[in-house]
Predict the 3D structure of the following.
Amino acid sequence: MTAASLEVAGAFVAAINAADLVALRALMTDDHTFTDARGNSFSGAEKLIAGWQHFFRAYPGYWIRIHQSFAAENHAALFGEAGGGWRVADRILPGTWQVAAAWLAEVESGKIRSWSVFCDTAWADPPC
């Protein structure tokens, strides 16, 4: 299942990069759990689709680039960087952010059961 885990995780990243909520939902188990870089966990695919919708709006142009990855059984570890912009008071601010990041995916029956991100979160606060 190691190659399949990487394939599913890669499809999830592609859906994120396309801001494709339909594809993201299709790749989530119903009990999907997301854990953010601050250690907060959220569960339930429908709740998380709403969360991604908000995230894509708050951080326009969000992207992930994977530089290295490996899998063990039903887990995939991805290493790279992420970036995007900021939206404040319905206005997209000039400039962008970028951060080194890692992700851990648990794959179950061809879908992502859990998705965790690991990175510095200083980028989340828009510049003044």
About this structure: The mean pLDDT is 96. DSSP finds three helices and eight strands in the chain. The helical segments are 2-17, 21-26, 45-58.
